[in-house]
Write a structure and sequence with these properties.
single chain; mainly alpha; Pectate Lyase C-like; 10 helices; elongated; disordered N terminus
Amino acid sequence: MFQATDSIAVLAGWIIIGMVSLFAINFDRGKKFLLWIVWELSGLRFIREKIFPPRTIQARPPATFIFWLLGAYLALFGWASIKYELTIAGIEKRANIVFLQLSSPAYKKALGRIPGLQHLPCPPEPRLLKPVSVYRSLTRTTKYPQMVNLLIETIEDWKKSLDTVKLQRAYLPHARLWEADLQKVNLKNAELRHAQLWDANLQNVIAWDADFENANLKDADLRGADLRGANLKNANLKNADLKDADLRNTCLIKADLRDANLKNADLREASLRQANLTGAVLKGSRLWNADLRQANLQGATGLQPESLAKAQDLYQALLDPKIKTRMQKISPHLFEESKR
């Protein structure tokens, strides 16, 4: 389905093609037609006759279409501008209340209101010389980018005092949260792509369906973390402590888990395809239906063949020779190429 802007572009294209064709067929006629369009439809004739009134009554009054069109556009721009200004004024008023509460004993409750502020709908800013921006401002909503970035900076400033704060659906891409205290924080459905979380304390964090793609969690403390359904694709979890973590249905594709502690971690139905688990501690970890295609498990400790046999796939996985030989006897089908 074409958008309005696409339809306008198509119409303009056909007009240009028609004019070029007219010029190609008859240059003189095409030139006269072009001059007529400029003279009549641009409003030049109307302006001239207002300044220099004709002595005789004209058979055809000058066209005022362009002025009606310009007036309608200015009215729409004014409407869009007022709507935009009122919306951001309301958002800023609510944000100022939160900033005032940060200096009170209820600062954690105020911090918990930040995700809601980030997701307040705001129309895009209309620009007078960009008609498409006016159309979008009247028909669409998005986030208020300046406020979103300011609230991210606020979270970064308070990173040492975030424990137990409810940050559900927080928008924190590229956030600088290294060494942050995020114990027992609610990060359900939070956006933390490319976030810098190295050496952060995330013990018992609740992060269902959170997005940590490309995040740096090196040396992070994730003991007891509930990361069910989270996206940790390409995440750096080198030397991270994930003891007793719940990683069911978690995406760990191409994740760096070298020397990570996954003791007693629940990895059922997790996707560990092409993940690097070199030197990782996997004692007591549950791997039922886990996807380990092309994963590097060399040097991993505590890996039991009985647990590994419950995995979904081991196609092209790198294993220590003794474990691989035993697994090929127990479950040879796991090393066959999957049709998925």
